[in-house]
Amino acid sequence: MHAARSRLAGAVSLALLATGVAVAGSGSAHAEPVTAAADGDIAINLLGVNDFHGRIFTNTVKWAGTVEKLRAEGGDADTLFVGAGDLVGASLFASAVDDDQPTIDVLNALGLDASAVGNHEFDKGFDDLTDRIIGADGSRNAQWDYLGANVYEKGTTTPALPEYATFDVEGVSVAVVGAVTEETASLVSPGGISDIEFGDPVEAVNRVAGELSDGDEANGEADVIVATFHAGAQDGTETYEDGVAHGGEFAEMADLDPAVDVIFNGHTHQTYVYDQPIPGESGTRPLLQTGSYAANVGHVVLSVDPTTHEVTGYEAENVATSSTTETDAELAAEYPDVAQVKSIVDDALADAAEVGNEPVGAITDDVTTAFADAAPVDGEYEGTTRDNRQAESTLGDLVANALRDGIPSDMGEADLGITNPGGLRAELLYAGDTTDNPENTDGVVTYAEANSVLPFVNNIWLVDLTGAELKDVLEQQWQPSGADRPYLQLGLSDNVEVTADSSADEGSRITSVRIDGEPVDPDATYTVSTFSFLGTGGDNFTAFTEGTSSDTGLVDRDLWISYLQDASPISPSYSRQQVFATDLPSSVSAGSEESFTLGTDNVTPAVPTTGETLDLTSLGSPVNTKVKATLVRDGETVGSAGTFAVTDGTADIDLTTPCSARAGDSLVLTAKPSGTQVTLPVVAADSLCSEVSATVLNAGKALVNGNKQLRLEAVVDAGDGTPTGTVTATVDGTEVDSAELGEDGTALLVVPAFSLAGSQDVVVTYSGDDTVEGSSTTVAVRVRKAPGKIAVSRTPAAVHARTTRPTWDVSVAAPGTSTVPSGRVVVRTAGFAFTAVLHDGEASLRLPAYGTVGVKNVRISYLGDDEVTAATVLRTVRVVH
Q1: CA dihedral 62, 65, 69, 74 (to 10 degrees)
Q2: Fold annotation for 359-573
Q3: 180, β-bridge pairs
C-alpha cells in the first residue's frame, strides 16, 4: 500500500463541476538542474509513464519493479506517479482480450495518481472511457484521475473531464494538469466522440496553470504545477531546439506558463529529457517523454524550499526497465505492490494463452509493417524499428486484401480495401515460438498474434465513394499542416494501382488510380471496405465522410481471423500498390519518346528515406534490380520497350513506345523481382509511326553464289494506321529489290545470292506515306558455304604389288551454285598422304606402288575453300601379286 496523499480532481468530476482546493502560496521560481535536493529542501519524487498500450507481457513485472525501486528511493510519501496517456488501447492480446482490465488493475496496484487522457482512451468512445474505464463515482475502476483540460462538451468551453488534480506532499500542494493532442478528433472514430470536442492543449494548460498560480483561492491554487501532455516531439534524437523548429504542439509548449515546473510528454513514442528554457526567466525546467511500451520510467526529483514552496532545482532522467536485473520473483518478494502486479499479469497471461494459443492461419514468410531503419542485407531488407507509418508495407496491403475479400456475400461486395497504417500494432513473423505453446511452430499464426495486429475492435464499414472522392482520400495521405506525421501511407488491396508525385501541388499529387486494371472513373461509384475509424474520417481522412457509409456489424478481429483461416497459407506480396514517380506521362502513344523516374526520393513534402522508392521496407522485401517495359494487348504481351536498371530503389526510364502500339493497349512497367507495376494507357497518336520487320522465308537456300534467290516477307505495322507505299531491300548500300505494300501491310522482296559466306545484312526500308512515317530494319542472313561433293575414279583397274602405280582422278563440285571449287585435295593410304591442287575443280594424283598385297583403304579429302565446304570419300584397292 502507498502512503495516503490528499487529492482532489479539479474543474469537474465525472458527474458534477467542482472547484479546486484552495492552497496558500504559489512558487514559480526556477533554478538550473541539480543532482539532488539541497539540504533542508523537500524532495518531490515524480515518476512518469506514457503510451503503455496495455503491455501485459513478460516485461511488465520488471517495469513495475523499476517503478517501485524509484518510489522506494524517493520515499513513498514524497512520490507522485503520473501518466501522459494511451495507457490502454492498441494493447497486447493479454490485455486486449479482457478489454484492458489487466492493465487498469496493474496501474491501480502501482498507485498511479493521475494521467492525461490519450487518444487511445477514446478508442471505444467517450462513454466507454467514463462509464467503464473510469467508472461512476462510488464504483471507480481506474483509481487515478484521468485529466483532460482541453476536452470540452461540444460547442462549449465546459470541461468534460477533470482539468487537474492536486496532491499534498509534505505540505506542498502539487497540481497535475493534463491535456491531450488536439488531433484526437481525427485519430479516433468520430461517432464515439460526437458530444465532445478537443481544444488547443497548450492554451488549456496555460489557462489552468494561470488560475492555479494567480493567488485566487476561489479557482484553486498550487505550489508546484506538473503539466502532462499526450503530445510531444517528433524525433527524440534531435536537440530541443530542432524539435521546436518543427512546429506543432511541441513547439507551442515553449510558451507554457512559467508557473509550470515539470512537463511530461507522450503520444509520439519518443525518448528524451530536455532542459526547457522558461519564457521570461533565466532558468529551465524538465521536459521528458519515456518512449513507449514500458521501456522506461520517467523520473524527476524536484527540490522545493520548505518555507516558500518554490522549486529551487531538479534532476530528470529516463530509467530503462532493462536496468532492473532482479528476477520477477525477487522483485515480488521485495515489493508487495509488484507481487500484486505479478499475480495480475500471471493470471492475464494464463487466461489469454487459453484463447490466444489457438492456431488460426499460416504464413510462408514474415509479413510486417515498414521498418524505419530497414537496409538491404544479401538482397533483402532487414531492420529493427517497426511501424514506419509513412511507408507502404506487406502487412498493410494484406490487411487491405482481407477487408476486400472478407465481407460475406450477403453483406455486400467491396471493390477495394483500405487500411490505415496506425492500426497495425504487431507483425506476423514466420519464426515460431514453442516455449509456451507447442503448436506455435514456424509459419503458424495464433489467435493472439493475429489479434495483436488489429487490437482496436473497429467495426467494418462499406463506404461508397465516387472515383473523384476516392482520389481525394488518397490525396489526404499528405496530412494537414501541424499534424504529428506529415504523411500517412494507406494500405491498399492488391487490385489497386496508384501513381503519385509528392513534388506536385497539394490536391494534385495522385496522378493515376486503377482498380482491377481499369482507370478509375471520377463519376463512377466504388465500394471501399475499411475500418469505422477511417470511415468516419479518422487520421484526417475526411474525404471518407463525403461518401455513403453502411456498418456491416462485423468486427475487424473476426473478419481478419476468418480471412487468415480461409486464405492460409499466405505469402507476403512485395509489390507496391502506390508508386511514386516524377515526370510520369498520363498516357503514351505509338512512337512517343518518354523520360521519367520511378521510385523518387528527396522530394517535398519529405517522406522518410525509402518511403518513396520502388522497394518496400517490410522485413524480407527484395531489392529491385530492373524495370521491364512491355506492350500488352488484351492481357497478352505483344512487344517490348526495353529493360532499365534500378539503383537504390530508383529507375530512370528513357523509352520509345513501340510503333505497333494501338489505342487501348497498355505499356506496363514491371519492377523485378518485387512485381510492382505501373500501367500507362496507350492513346491514338497525332502522327503515326511505323515499324517494319522482315522474315527470310527460305533461309536454308542462302548459299554463297547460290542458284536460288532469297525471299523476304516485309511487314509494316503502323498501329492504328494502314500503311501504303514501297519497301526496298538494300545490300551493301545497293538496292536489290523493291515492292508495293499490300492491303495487309506486307510485301515480298527478292534478294540475289551472296558472294560471301557468313552473316550478311539486308536493310529493309519502308518509305512511308502521307499519314505514316517511314522506318527501316536490318535483317541478318546467315549465308552458308556450298556443300562440296567429290567424285573419284582410279586407273588402272588391276593393281599389282611393287609394279603398279595407281592414279586417282578427283573432281569436286558445289551443287546448287555457280561456284567452281578451288583449293587442295589429299589422298591418304598405307600411312602416307599425297596432295594436289585443284584446277577448274579437278586434280589427278599418281601414287607409288604398294609394297605388299591385300586390301588397302584409301581416304580422299577435299579441304574446302572460302565458298565451298570440305568433303571426304572412302575407297578401297585390292593389291595382287
Answers
A1: 120
A2: 5'-nucleotidase;  domain 2 (3.90.780)
A3: 230
Three cell numbers at 739? 515492292
Query: Where does the chain hold its CATH 2.60.40.150 domain(s)?
Result: 691-783
* Cα distance between residue 848 and residue 850, in whole Å: 6
- Measured in degrees and rounded to the nearest 5, phi and psi for residue 402 equal -65, -40
What CATH number should be reported for the domain whose range is 789-880? 2.60.40.10
Q: In what order do the strands lie in the sheet with 789-795?
A: 789-795, 807-813, 842-846
Grid cell 465481407 is found at: 407
The CATH code for residues 579-681 is 2.60.40
The reported pLDDT for the residue numbered 31 is: 42
Name the 3-class secondary structure at 872: strand
* The pLDDT of residue 665: 95
pLDDT at 9: 53
Q: Looking at the chain, which residues constitute the CATH 3.60.21.10 domain(s)? A: 7-347
Q: Where are the alpha helices (DSSP H) in 181-294?
A: 184-187, 201-212, 240-245, 248-252
Q: What average pLDDT does the chain have?
A: 91
Dihedral sign computed on CA atoms, order 89, 92, 95, 98? positive
How far, in Å, CA of 683 to CA of 585, rounded? 12
**Cβ neighbours for 518, distance < 8 A, ≥ 6 positions apart:** none
> What confidence tens digit (pLDDT) does each residue in 657-712 have?
998 899 999 999 999 999 999 999 999 887 788 888 888 888 777 777 777 788 88
Distance of CA 698 to the CA centre of its chain: 53
pLDDT of residue 601: 56
Closest CA relative to residue 198, chosen from 226, 176, 220, 231: 231
Maximal C-alpha separation, the chain: 150
Question: Does the bond joining 796 to the residue before it have cis omega, within 30 degrees of 0?
Answer: yes
> Which of 560-588 are b and which e, b meaning 16 or more Cβ less than 10 Å from the residue's Cβ?
bbbbbeeebebebbbbbbbbbbbebbebb
Residue with cell 492552497: 23
Q: How many residues does the chain have?
A: 881
Using CA atoms, how far residue 679 sits from 19, 256, 467, in Å, is: 64, 52, 18
Q: Is 732 exposed, middle or buried (0-12, 13-18, 19+ CB in 10 A)?
A: exposed
The reported pLDDT for the residue numbered 757 is: 83
Q: What share of the chain is helix, strand, coil (3-state, %, to 5)?
A: 20, 35, 45
Instruction: Give the residue, 559 or 23, on which the prediction is more confident.
Output: 559
Separation of alpha carbons 193 and 196, rounded Å? 6
Domain 7-347 is of which CATH architecture? 4-Layer Sandwich (3.60)
CB 772 within 8 A of CB 721: yes
Return the residue matching grid coordinates 505479478. 342
Helices (H), 455-501: 467-475
All residues at 6 or more sequence positions from 333 whose CB lies less than 8 Å from its CB, including other chains: 339
pLDDT band for position 347 (50/70/90)? very high
Q: Is the bond into 277 cis (omega within 30 degrees of 0)?
A: no
User: Average pLDDT in the 168-182 region?
Assistant: 98
Residues 6 or more apart whose CB falls under 8 angstroms from that of 325 comprise: none
**Counts of helices then strands in the chain (DSSP H, E):** 15, 49
Cell numbers that stand for 263 in this block: 512537463
Query: Residue 159 gets which letter from DSSP?
Result: B
Instruction: Provide the pLDDT confidence category of residue 18 given band limits of 50, 70 and 90.
Output: very low
Class of domain 691-783: mainly beta
Whether the ω angle into residue 605 lies within 30 degrees of 0, i.e. cis, is: yes
Region(s) of the chain under CATH 2.60.40.10: 789-880
> Residue 575 in 3-state DSSP?
coil
Cβ–Cβ < 8 Å for 53, 120: yes
